[in-house]
């Protein structure tokens, strides 16, 4: 008897973001001339009505060297998985004020109280901070908030992604090659790791179907 797992198809990051951004808008056909509404126009115009998400989508994120996110002394640290310490999942919401083709997002802790932000040091070096700012407030204000925004995309492979600072183009969320170091901003080709695996909370909650096949 052989037991095999029928693995559920995993969406790429771009597919996840396409689905997330599509939740924001619905298309409704309309006829500009009400007297002609009984006729079908050759080209149907559309209007887009913005919808609002009630809560963020949760993602588990870890780098390609298998380091996960943990909270240590109010900082996000990347470390190998430790079952004695709860890892951090990230809450994600789209930024509607920026170009949706770049998949701009806000990222915060799961309770939404602290959000990732990009600033520069006194020497002008881009830095990543976790600041006390509610992600839902940022989302609902519908402003650019470049310092809180990241352009996200599938990167490296269909299973990995990257997060580029909107405030500092060319700088990405990164982890150190060494364990137990805070996450920060880095450039591709540098010493930091800028590619991440991900998992949605929906995927976590669903159990893979196990098929038993008798040989």
Automatic annotation (TrEMBL):
Signal peptide: which range, if any? none
| The entry's keywords | Disulfide bond, Glycoprotein, Secreted, Signal
Q: Where is the protein localized?
A: Secreted
**Where mainly located?**
secreted
What InterPro entries does this protein's entry cite? IL-1_CS, IL-1_fam, IL-1RA/IL-36, IL1/FGF
Concerning Pfam families, the annotation shows: IL1
Give GO terms: molecular function aspect only. Answer: cytokine activity; interleukin-1 receptor binding
Q: Which BP terms from GO are recorded?
A: cellular response to lipopolysaccharide; cytokine-mediated signaling pathway; inflammatory response to antigenic stimulus; positive regulation of gene expression
| GO CC terms in record | extracellular space
Instruction: Tell me the domain of life.
Output: Eukaryota
Family recorded in the similarity comment: Belongs to the IL-1 family.
Q: What this chain does, per the record?
A: Anti-inflammatory antagonist of interleukin-1 family of proinflammatory cytokines such as interleukin-1beta/IL1B and interleukin-1alpha/IL1A. Protects from immune dysregulation and uncontrolled systemic inflammation triggered by IL1 for a range of innate stimulatory agents such as pathogens.
The name this protein goes by in its record: Interleukin-1
> What is the originating organism of this protein?
Notechis scutatus
What does UniProt list as this organism's lineage? Eukaryota, Metazoa, Chordata, Craniata, Vertebrata
